[in-house]
Specification:
It comes from Ameca splendens. Belongs to the fibril-associated collagens with interrupted helices (FACIT) family. This is VWFA domain-containing protein. It is a single chain. Helix content is 21%, strand content 26%. The protein is of the alpha+beta class. The strands form four sheets. Strands 8, 9, 10, 12, 17, 18, 19 and 22 form an eight-stranded antiparallel sheet that branches. A six-stranded mixed sheet has the order 4-3-2-5-6-7, with helices on both faces. The chain has a six-stranded antiparallel sheet with strand order 11-21-13-14-15-16. The longest helix has 19 residues.
């Protein structure tokens, strides 16, 4: 409480000083709210949809565009309806404000007829995403996105039109309702399929995927591809077997390359020992377009003796004035894990995890922390076990004009001593939940225990032509050679850490009673008699 109050007072004085000096404080915020598109909806209005369900589609479109910043220089929106043939409801340059787009979506007309999905995809590629109809030139770097919604099987082919759309740079999402075929949705959707295909049971459920669809739109723009190991995710998850996912490998971005350990078996990965110098990067170099609205922070690390009781930031982003934007704090004294972020309507959003299960983190063993950060909540996973989910309020996008740091003490920013295997941010918040603990020595994955060296198979050499002509020779057994000299003495190993103070020992047995000493004699010396 005192820390938060002190922070607010400091912030008030800081802003007041800048105001008096006439200097403006301008944050360069980056994140999903600042990603812009040329966005087209391709909507199935065939007879199988029906007027009542089409009303739900209209409302769904109006709700979904609310999460975009609609303007001529930001996100532009178009709509294509299709049944027997496709029809433009409105082009990308028709409406300039969010309210105009929402009103136009609510006024869309229902057609009825067959389901010619392939024709609608080709029509959108060749007509909607054209500069004469409001699409911006490729040099502007605005991503072209199409969201196709259908409730059944197409009556024409969709694969070739979808390939042509992808070749034209259009990122296609496929939303299926009811009897829509998964195979056909995957033919339509962009790669990776699991990030671009959505399916719900009926029209009443389409609003439930609105948030997920919006996040998927954002994450592939903000997040680069990150390589992962084949055993990274649980076998029953949709991410199992993937070799690349959107995210940030922070150890790679921070150039942390001094490897101390090695993969000695199938469970333990190599690691680095931090604490000698600050691990800091410019935020623009790590997150050039900010962080997605939802993400997962995952790290595998181990406290050292000096860091167990420290109060420090495992990871933090702060702006050019030192104001925190997002951080994960480890409070060794109170044994707590704390998530902090800059708030949309208040100074900071805060979630503190403190319970007996969190206490286990603060020993000197390897542990994995996973934080699943979603729109309204943060969930903590410790060693692949869900510990707690806490609510949070709305967050602001981060200011990327600052620095990102790994492992610094709270009150003086001194580097913290700890061992680190890996630290990454997934752009899918669910990855904190589906991570395995195969990188922990005590993890659940099978380990290969080697008790003795495997036998070496020595191949039998093929005899030469001359040897084959000589025929077999007599077998000769040679005596063993003399014993070699003793090898040179190896280098001394590294000095280990000083051990902890041990427990107080047991009280020893009572000693033997000593002998009685001799009695002393009181003697006095008679002084000289004084003069009379």
């Amino acid at each position: 409480m005192e820390f938060r109050l002190g922070f607010r007072i400091t912030l008030v004085w800081f802003v007041l000083a800048l105001t008096l000096s006439g200097e403006r404080v301008e944050a360069q915020r980056a994140g999903c709210k600042n990603v812009h598109y040329d966005l087209a909806f391709i909507l199935d209005t065939s007879s199988s949809v029906g007027k009542e369900n089409f009303e739900k589609i209209r409302q769904w479109v109006a709700n979904l565009v609310e999460s975009f910043d609609v303007a001529p220089d930001k996100t532009r929106v178009a709509v294509v309806r299709y049944s027997d043939r496709p029809t433009t409801e409105f082009t990308l340059d028709r409406y300039r404000t969010l309210e105009d787009v929402k009103q136009a979506a609510r006024n869309m007309r229902y057609l009825g007829g067959n389901t010619m999905t392939g024709d609608a995809i080709s029509y959108t590629t060749n007509n909607i995403f054209m500069e004469q109809n409001g699409a911006r030139p490729p040099a502007r770097g605005i991503q072209k996105v199409a969201i196709l919604l259908t409730d059944g099987r197409s009556q024409d082919y969709v694969l070739e039109p979808s390939k042509a759309a992808a070749k034209a740079g259009i990122r296609m999402f496929a939303v299926g309702i009811g009897e829509a075929l998964k195979e056909e949705l995957e033919e339509i959707a962009a790669e990776p399929k699991n990030a671009h295909v959505f399916h719900v049971t009926d029209f009443n459920a389409i609003d439930k995927i609105r948030g997920r669809l919006r996040r998927r739109l954002c994450e592939n723009v903000l997040c680069p591809k990150m390589k992962v190991q084949p055993d990274r995710f649980k076998p029953n998850s949709t991410s199992y077997g993937l070799e690349e996912v959107p995210g940030f490998d922070l150890m790679e971005y921070f150039n942390v390359k001094d490897i101390l350990g090695t993969r000695v078996d199938e469970s333990q990965s190599s690691y680095v020992r931090l604490g000698m110098m600050p691990v800091v990067q410019q935020t623009e170099d790590v997150f050039p377009q900010g962080l997605p609205d939802e993400y997962a922070f995952v790290t595998t690390f181990k406290f050292r003796k000096t860091s167990r009781r420290e109060d420090w930031y495992l990871w933090q982003i702060f702006d050019k004035y030192g104001i925190p934007q997002v951080s994960i704090r480890l409070d060794g004294e109170n044994k707590a894990v704390e998530y902090n972020a800059v708030g949309l309507t208040k100074d900071a959003v805060r979630a503190v995890f403190k319970n007996p299960e969190v206490d286990n983190l603060f020993d000197r063993n390897w542990h994995k922390i996973g934080l699943s950060v979603e729109a309204r909540s943060v969930a903590l996973y410790l060693d692949c076990k869900h510990i707690q989910t806490l609510p949070i309020e709305d967050r602001e996008d981060i200011d990327i004009q600052g620095k990102t740091v790994i492992g610094k003490r709270l009150y003086d920013s001194v580097p913290i001593d700890f061992d680190l295997q890996r630290m990454m941010i997934y752009c899918d918040s669910k990855h904190a939940e589906v991570e395995t603990c195969c990188d922990l020595p005590t993890g659940p994955c099978p380990k290969k225990v080697v008790t003795e060296a495997p036998p070496v198979r020595i191949p039998t050499p093929t005899p030469t032509v001359a040897e084959q002509k000589r025929g077999p020779q007599a077998n000769c057994s040679c005596p063993a050679g003399e014993k070699g000299n003793i090898g040179a003495r190896g280098l001394p190993g590294l000095k280990g850490d000083k051990g902890e103070i041990g427990p107080k020992g047991a009280i020893g047995p009572q000693g033997i009673k000593g002998e009685r000493g001799e009695s002393g004699k009181l003697t006095s010396v008679k002084g000289d008699r004084g003069e009379k």
